[in-house]
Amino acid sequence: MNETPEIVTIDTEEIQLDQFLKWAGATASGGEVKALIAEGLVYRNGEKESARRRRLHDGDVITVKGLGSYQVKVKG
To answer: SS3 for 54?
Structure first.
């Protein structure tokens, strides 16, 4: 999990994890995010994530094993 994350810019102060991964193009649905979390493949700032509706903020890094890493960047 040392790869350089892709920067994904959002227009709001925060975003839910499942919405963020769809916005980033990593998944097509919230159901996919739920399955990835259940399999233990999603990490937020290096810690295993268990909530698909976790609120993300500027600077958070989400890593999905096998898909890549994405950093939240708030526009502005």
So the answer is: coil
Q: CATH number for 6-74: choose from 3.40.718.10, 3.10.290.10, 1.10.290.10, 3.40.50.300.
A: 3.10.290.10
pLDDT higher than 70, residue 1: no
What pLDDT is recorded for position 2? 60
What pLDDT does residue 76 have? Answer: 82
Report which residue type is found at 32: E
* Burial (Cβ within 10 Å: 0-12, 13-18, ≥19) of residue 27: buried
Interval 36-62: pLDDT, tens:
999 999 999 999 999 999 999 999 999
41 is written with which tokens? Answer: 């493949």
**CA dihedral sign of residues 15, 39, 29, 72:** positive
Phi/psi zone of residue 20: left (φ > 0), alpha (ψ -120 to 50 degrees), beta? alpha
